[in-house]
Structure formats: C-alpha cells, structure tokens
C-alpha cells in the first residue's frame, strides 16, 4: 500500500474540475460549451503535514504546430498540448515564487525553500512535505495511449470471449524515423509499443515529441526545465499521475512513463485511475465534434487565465501578426505572445538573474546558451539520451532555440 494512501485523489480531481468550470466563464471558451472537446492537465500539491490539496496550475489544449510553422524567435508556443502547457505554466509559477523570495526578505514560500549553505547561495529546493499530483483527463498521446480495447470500460468485468476480435486503442502519434514503423495491421497488431513518437496531426508533420515521451523525460530531469535548473539543482518531479478517463491502461502508462527510463532511476511514480467525466472531454462515438482550437493556461498567482490560439495569446489576430512579421519591433511582438512562450519565460529568467546578482557571471545573451549553462541538467540529459536514442534533437530543433534575448 502506498505511504500516501490517505490522499483523496477524487478530491483533487473535483478541485481541478471546479476551478476549470469557474475559469472558462472568464474567457471566450464559454461560447463553445458542449460544441467542441479538449484535453485538460493540472498540477496539484498535497501537503503531507496538513493533508491539504492545493491546485497550483492547469492548462487545456490539443494543438501542435507543424515544422513549417515553428517560430524561430521564441514568441510563439509550438506545442499546445495540455500536458506541455501545464508544465510551462508551472515553470512560470516557480519563477514567480523565486522572484518573491529574492525580492522580499520576509516572504516564505509554501512550496520552495532556500538553501542555507553559503556555497549554495540563491539555490532553491522543492519542499519535501509537498507532493505533486498531475491530473489528466486523458492518457498522454504516444505510447501511453496504446492499449487493448475492452468491450466494457469497467476493468472488473470479465474479459471478452476468446472468439471476439481484439483491437487496440490507437494513437495518431507517429514513430520517429529510425525505429520500426507501425505495421498498421488489423486489430491488436496495428501499433508497435515502446516507440518514441512525434505529436499526432493530419497536416504538416511536427518535430515535437509525444506527451508520453516528454513526460517520461520530466520524470528523470524534472518539471522545472533547463533554465530554472540554474536556481533549482534537484529535479522537481510528479509523485502521482491521476487519469480521469475510463479509456485507460495502467500497464501502458507505466510502460510509457517508467519502464523506458534507466533501471534504478531515483524516483517513484504512482499512477491512479479516478473515473470522473470531464465536461469537455472527447466523447465516444461523436466523430463529428472537433477539438477546441483555444488553449487555456493558469496558475494560482494569476488573477485570470490566459487563452492561446495557434501558439499566440488570443487577440493577436492575423492582421497584427502580418504587420509585425517584417518588423523588429520586439516590444510590440511581446505584447502579442503568451506568458508561457520561450521569450517571456527567458525574460523572467533574466530578471531572476539580475535580482540574484548572477547576471555579471553570464557572458551570453542567447536562449540556447542560457539553457546549456545548467550543467547538472545538461549532463543528466546527456546520460539519458543513451536510452532515448531516437529523440529528435537535430539542427532543426536547435535552430528554433538559437535566438538572442535581452
């Protein structure tokens, strides 16, 4: 039995769904209620001392830009799947907490603690009494979404009779070039399992890895990412993942998120299925309904949610974007981009460097170079790449991060 078996995961899901219902009434997604579907991801914190669950952040989204539309200047969010946006707005939350701790001597974060060792000045750690719960309304795209279909979603029911034709739940995520391609045979032989994949999509192929692959990586390197690893030197990992969909397989989730990582990895992840219907989840047998193109991002430090369309903050219409495309008016472009885009997060990172008096030690003003400065993160990622041999990390991916920041 889990040490944290006293956690009420149903309460965590209820808290997320209640907050979502309130947030969507503050934005334009309200007009789409019941007409379209979306995916939702959220991160909650469970206080071991108090037994309290706090919602830290959430995001919705199903879209991802194709390779031809990827932004090379950091103004546009390339991957707007719910899990990825949720992690990005969680990073913003961490940055805001560090900012307060650097700016206010009397500010005590409930989630981060500042190291007291003189040699580790301005280094922060996640509090050990706060356990992270990631709530998903769906299985992540890619390997975690490949599992055998059942005639009944109730796992307590007897299995289908042997004469029935087996089939698997299919993912639109495509195997990365270099691995064995999906055989696409009828029924259960349609997919290969354990493969690294890129995001699904019918248009221009994307360079973004599937959410299954990214989440497996986060379980080793942490949710804080490479930029914040300058301030946070111990990975911040999810302790629990809760999936609310009845279309789910624990074996597939563990295969995708745990078993593809190196043996003996120093983390424990528990996966839980709490079957609660999401009001805007993808309905079964309703293929005529389309995914909502609008994404939502929010964390507990934001008074209102922000909405994204095609990787930009909602309201950045085509006419404005076309007007700015040929200009170097960075201030105007920043006004149109999301708070979780690379440019905004890197600007916040520079603010943290200035407040920590670490700016004088930095010689470069390039986004990619800043990421490479986090040595422990870089070395850990380099070691992990020996297991993630098919992870896309070529010049096409690096070029979109090689932009100057001020």
From TrEMBL:
Q: Which UniProt keywords apply?
A: Hydrolase, Metal-binding, tRNA processing, Zinc
Where are the residues of the annotated region Disordered? 148-167
Domain A to I editase span(s) in chain numbering: 57-389
Per UniProt, what is one GO molecular function of this protein? metal ion binding
Query: Which EC main class describes this enzyme?
Result: hydrolase
Enumerate the cofactors the protein uses: 1D-myo-inositol hexakisphosphate
Set out the biological process GO terms recorded for this chain's protein.
tRNA processing
Q: What is its EC number?
A: 3.5.4.34
Cited PROSITE patterns: A_DEAMIN_EDITASE
- A matching Pfam family: A_deamin
Catalytically driven reaction(s): adenosine(37) in tRNA(Ala) + H2O + H(+) = inosine(37) in tRNA(Ala) + NH4(+)
Entry's family note = Belongs to the ADAT1 family.
Q: State the protein's purpose.
A: Specifically deaminates adenosine-37 to inosine in tRNA-Ala.
Protein name from the UniProt record:
tRNA-specific adenosine deaminase 1
Q: Which organism is it from?
A: Romanomermis culicivorax (Nematode worm)
The opening ranks of the lineage are: Eukaryota, Metazoa, Ecdysozoa, Nematoda, Enoplea
